Amino acid sequence: MTAPLVFEDVPLNLRAATACSLTVPAHHTIAVLGDDASGVDRLGGYVLGLEAPPAGRVLVFDTDIGSLPDPERLAFRRRVGYLPAGDGLLQNLTLRDNIALPLRFGTAASSREIDGRVNVMVVAVRLGSAADRRPATANEEERRRAALARAIAFDPGLLVLEQPFDGVTARAAAELLEVARGGETAEGARRAILITGHELPAVVQRRCDRLYRLTRAGALELETV
Amino acid sequence: MINLLTRLGGWMARWLSLLGALARFSFGGARAAVRLPRAGQDVVVRVTLNQIRFTAVHAIGLVLLLSGILSFLVISQAVRELGQLGASELIGTLMVVAIVRELGPLITALAVVGRSGTAIAAELATNTVMGEVRALQGMGIDPRQYLVLPRFIGAVASIFALLVLFDIVAIGAGFAAAAINGMTGSRYAEIVLRSLSARDVLLTVAKALALGVIVGIVPSYFGLSVRRAATEIPVAVSRATVASIVGVFLCSALFVLLG
């Protein structure tokens, strides 16, 4: 079985000439950490085809997403769960409506079916009554829970999480990671996950299969978890 | 001289490039609209109604005021001055051509640009800077479906509705002005109705729709054209307002040329 996500010779730091290769195999949780100058923030954009890498290619489920025409690329992104840095929740919608949004625009399901699915997600991420609040009146942890629920709304095989645990306690981070993994199979987590960010709580690092540090020179260094 | 021509050429090239970008943006939006699933349509309808509430319903007072005062002043002066010259018949032409057909659409569109065009540009620019547009794209949602389409439909419907209101109030205020200045109501109604043709109504409707398209598209385009810095928001709003006003005037001029 091929890996859900492969970076082939992609320069991650635009000021450095070093090209990186990275594979996120199925059932694996891989974290890439680095500071602002390392270019780690670009990884998620490359995976989803939001930005094109300057060289090399990024294969998602064996597809070079950057080569797809616009409508196909939009549809393809629904196979990948995405939690952007800063959560990206729409401020004029409740957390519940935010979770429902990708389902409303990306499926042919009826509103009733979508509402049922959203209720399941709200319970899964333990959002409770906060689901009916708008992002501005919810706390950081509730917003992260909602953003994660939205990312897994399509039950994707691959998840990209950008700085997913900033502003949440280590305990909540561990809990959110378990939800993101989607349960366990004989091979490992049900989903492949790429986590990018500046730092991760120790409890989350221990749950990662591999942890890389992206240097300012653009090199990926494997860290011992 | 060459310097002047170079600058003029550069200015023309920028405007043509903007026109091309707006056309691409509009066609892309139209294609995205066709692909909307059923549940997405429900969301778009909800956001559109909200946009109409803000753009049309909340602007009723402003349009009543502008229309009433403009018509009252113009017809008051016209009844006095034209009456002295024995040319009262021209009041009808003045009302239909100047107010209903030309100033009505122009003032209504400018009022909507000032109230809602700026708000649309600021809102979409904020959505972009806050990372909401990127998040939508990352989830496989075309931002033009969720953000642009409802605002576009809302702007077209609102300008059309406000223009109908503007014209009704203008004719009513003209009636009051004529009565105060000694003209009978039946005489005023006869003059105005005689001057009003089906062609005037069609031209006014077509102009309302065209101006609605401009006010629906231009602020959305500039709002979504910002990158990531909050300092780009006021610049985008300013550009959207200027481009919308220029577009509204050019469109009005084009209708005069075609009409």
Question: What fraction, in percent, of the residue positions of chain B are helical?
Answer: over 70%
Q: What amount of the residues of chain A lies in strands?
A: 15-25%
Category by helix and strand content of chain A: alpha/beta
- Total domain units of chain A: 2
Gyration radius of chain A (Cα, Å) is 17 Å
Record field, number of beta strands of chain A: 12
What is the H/E string of chain A? EEEHEEHEHHHEHEEEHEE
Walk me through this protein's architecture.
The complex is a heterodimer of chains A (225) and B (259). Chain A has 225 residues and is of the alpha/beta class. Chain A folds into 2 domains: 1-79 and 159-225, Rossmann fold; 89-155, no CATH class. Chain A has helices spanning 42-48, 70-77, 95-106, 111-124, 140-151, 170-181, 202-207; strands at residues 5-11, 19-24, 29-33, 57-60, 63-64, 80-83, 158-162, 184-185, 188-189, 192-197, 210-214, 220-223. In chain A, strand 4 (57-60) and strand 5 (63-64) form a beta hairpin. The longest helix of chain A has 14 residues, at 111-124. The radius of gyration of chain A is 17 Å and the shape is globular. The model of chain A has no long low-confidence stretch (mean pLDDT 91). By secondary structure, chain B is an all-alpha fold. Chain B folds into 2 domains: 1-32; 40-258, no CATH class. Chain B has helices spanning 2-34, 38-55, 60-84, 90-129, 132-138, 143-180, 185-195, 198-224, 232-258. The longest helix of chain B has 40 residues, at 90-129. The chains are: A alpha/beta (225), B mainly alpha (259). Chain A binds chain B through residues 44-45, 48, 50, 70-71, 74-78, 82, 84-91, 101-111, 114, 150, and chain B through 28, 31, 35-40, 42-43, 127, 130-132, 134-142, 145-146.
